[in-house]
Amino acid sequence: MDDKSKVSLFAFATLFGICVLATSLGAAAQTTSQPTITKDDFDTYRLYYSLFKRVQGVEILAQRSEARGTDPHHDTRRIMLKEFGNLSDQEGEILRKIALDAVAKTNALRQQWKDAADAFQQQNKAPLTGKTITPQLRQQKQHIERQRFQTTVDHISQLKAALGAARFQQLDSWVRTEMHN
Question: Is residue 50 located within the same domain as residue 23?
Answer without folding.
Answer: no
